[in-house]
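Q: I'm a student working through a structural biology exercise. My instructor gave each of us a protein and asked us to get a predicted structure, then write a short paragraph describing it. Mine is PLD nuclease N-terminal domain-containing protein. I'm not confident about reading structure output yet, so if you can add a plain explanation after the tokens, that would really help. Here is the sequence I was given:
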Amino acid sequence: MLRALMYILPIALTIYAFIDCLNTPEDEAKHLPKVAWIFIILLFWIVGPIVWLAAGKTRRAPAGGRTPSEWHRNHRMEWVAPDDNPEFLKSLRDENKKDESLLKDWEADLRRREEELKRREENGDKGDDDTPKS
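A: Happy to help. First, here is the predicted structure for PLD nuclease N-terminal domain-containing protein. I'll explain a few features afterward.
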């Protein structure tokens, strides 16, 4: 297992660094052009990714200079269950009204067709339009 890890880890690191380099805007690549960094990552596939991750990209602190964990400590969102969320319940009510109106329209259409069929049967009309008339 350790033998496989010796090969898998550098390949995975190379792939990660390559994709990170491709997704980095040109103005955030430090010291060299982005194309040069791509060649370094691919040609020196053991050392290149480590150099890219350490020195190749401009790393910025988040807005306000705080780390993500500090931001999350100060801005915790209160999670609201869907059955307590008034906006969600309102959307369900609106959707339910739409469904009810569609169901009423469908039932009315069905009743109309049934009545039409009953009238045809009472008149003796089978409703077959395919039969030849002589």
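A: Here are two points you could use in your paragraph. The mean pLDDT is 80. Residues 2-59 form one domain. It's a good idea to check both against the output above yourself.
Q: Great, thank you!
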